[in-house]
Design brief:
Length: 147
């Protein structure tokens, strides 16, 4: 049995005043323009199957059986949604994020996701040749410093 937990509790999804889980800000904020049809299909699926906190844990194979997505296209659709700031993903758990955030924490979460999935040779390195921590990378990004 999978134990569910909030991946990003500060972005817990709440029912918007516009009466549905499909928040009107999706269209007004430009999120939809940043997604292709595969990403939008995946987002709709995650909204439909998610619990009150936006959490779900369908496997890739199950999603591909229910969606017009192949197992080759699913990772790209997921990456698009993470980069746009609509979801976070921590294997095997998805969380659909609320749109009412004021910080760039979602960008930090996306960087963490990249770091988790990237092979060690792809990690940014410090001058000493050792892999940098996510914390160091984020500090550099926020300060505008170049690697």
């Amino acid at each position: 049995m999978i134990s569910k937990h909030m991946i990003c509790p500060e972005r817990k999804r709440r029912l918007p005043q516009s009466f549905s889980w499909l928040d009107h800000r999706l269209a007004r904020s430009g999120h939809l323009k940043k997604c292709d049809s595969d990403a939008l299909g995946l987002y709709l699926f995650l909204v439909i199957v998610g619990d009150a906190d936006g959490l779900s844990y369908y496997s890739d194979a199950s999603m591909c059986a229910l969606l017009p997505l192949t197992e080759e296209k699913l990772p790209m659709a997921r990456k698009t949604l993470i980069n746009v700031g609509l979801i976070v993903y921590e294997v095997p758990l998805y969380q659909v994020l609320g749109l009412d955030y004021r910080t760039s924490k979602i960008q930090i979460t996306a960087e963490k996701e990249k770091g988790k999935l990237a092979p060690s040779r792809d990690f940014p390195r410090s001058g000493s040749g050792h892999p940098q921590s996510i914390e160091d990378i984020v500090k550099k990004l926020l300060s505008g410093e170049q690697s």
